[in-house]
Amino acid sequence: MLQFRQDERTKGARIVKATPWRRQIIDTDAGGIETLDNGAGQNRAILLVTHGLGSIHSAEEIAEGLNARFPGRRIIAYSRPGRGASPECGHLASTDPLSQEAHALLPALLRALGLTSVDIVAHSDGVAVAVLFASAHPWMVGRMVAICPQVHTPERVDPSRCVEDIEKLGADHTNTLGAIRCWSAQCETLTANPGMVLDRVGALTAPLLLIQGLKDEYGAQRQMEALSDRVHGPMKWVMLRHDGHFPQHDNADVVIDMICGHFGDLSSETTSKRRQRRGAI
């Protein structure tokens, strides 16, 4: 395990928005999905998967930081079903909304955007979606970053904290109560089936960076331990001693630097091996 001790003074640093981002509702086979898109036309991208109470607005800061360090690289974020301006996609509703998002909605979005491969940055229960997608489509995923993952039996949902967390995430929802309901349903799915994501972790081939805030109020350290125990491929684990469940917002520059270091550390040998793999979604 690596431990990264950041200067607490950096927590006040914020990314200044400068790039005009294209926000739109993308029509897909799974319904309309609100997206944040920079670098349209490229078939490879960095994909941001937000917290279950987040929206594309939650991803703006980290997207700006990545854009500044990887100029010209395509960066995509999306509002998950029922969050932001994305509809709930009722025809995808099921007792397993996380799997539906990972196996139906996300592939449909990537097809609509013309993407053939992605590096993934995911936060909280967004990591569950990323793991399910990457384990089913390993040829499409280059590298992954998991920030404060929630991938099995999450902490008990406390509705009184939802509004506070939405504010911390900087999210903007068309229907806030609907967003909370969708997030609660996903938490209930993990509670009912704790092995749903963990049982798939062994199939991951993408090099993984785990970033954890030591002061995480949602007990994500045990989430990271359960996740890392099952990872067979390359993995790094970083602990931020001053941060809680939202380090990419509270300590954006430090987290973005670590993400860029992970994405920039891709050997030509690994790249060659991944290019030999073929598949479709």
UniProtKB/TrEMBL annotation:
<dbReference type="InterPro" id="IPR029058">
    <property type="entry name" value="AB_hydrolase_fold"/>
</dbReference>
<dbReference type="InterPro" id="IPR000073">
    <property type="entry name" value="AB_hydrolase_1"/>
</dbReference>
<dbReference type="Pfam" id="PF00561">
    <property type="entry name" value="Abhydrolase_1"/>
</dbReference>
<dbReference type="InterPro" id="IPR050266">
    <property type="entry name" value="AB_hydrolase_sf"/>
</dbReference>
<feature type="domain" description="AB hydrolase-1">
    <location>
        <begin position="47"/>
        <end position="153"/>
    </location>
</feature>
<protein>
    <submittedName>
        <fullName>Pimeloyl-ACP methyl ester carboxylesterase</fullName>
    </submittedName>
</protein>
